[in-house]
Amino acid sequence: MSKPRPYDDVPGTTVFDERMSRKGYHLNQFCMSLMKPENRARFKADQRAYLAEWAMTDEQKQAVIDRDYNGLLSLGGNIYFLAKIFACDGLSFQYAASTMTGMSEEDYLSMMLSGGRSPEGNRSKSEWK
User: If DSSP states are collapsed to H, E and C, what string results for the chain?
Assistant: First the structure.
């Protein structure tokens, strides 16, 4: 078990550090494979068969199938690598981010254009006491 980091308790945030990088190595390599058209075609034709070729955990593979982007982040996925899945599905980064926040794409766009989400309530969990 690794030592806790000061940023581990930031609500709603997964920091992609060296621990997450190790955890998600194969997941992120899979995502990068989708940069090649022939790999995207193979993945689209039979997702489970393509995923079986990767040394990912069953939980990571299921999160890919389910397109559980927040789950993929918690399993070591890097948002910039996960974008390859969005693109493979024909989705914009903006749309995928809106689904991750539970907002409509329009509401997400409006929030981002007005300066982003409020910092209120986004502090360290230890400050909530």
Answer: CCCCCHHHHCCCCCCCCHHHHHHCHHHHHHHHHCCCHHHHHHHHHCHHHHHHCCCCCHHHHHHHHHCCHHHHHHCCCCHHHHHHHHHHCCCCHHHHHHHHHCCCHHHHHHHHHCCCCCCCCCCCHHHHC
* C-alpha separations of 73 from 38, 96, 110, 115, 129 in Å: 26, 13, 24, 24, 27
What is the set of domains in the chain, with CATH numbers?
16-89 (1.10.700.10)
Model pTM score:
0.85
Residue of 39 and 5 predicted with greater confidence: 39
Q: What is the pLDDT of residues 14-26, one digit of tens each?
A: 889 999 999 999 9
Instruction: Grade residue 127 by pLDDT with cuts at 50, 70 and 90.
Output: low
What's phi and psi for 52, nearest 5 deg?
-65, -20
Is 64:51 a contact under the CB 8 Å cutoff? yes
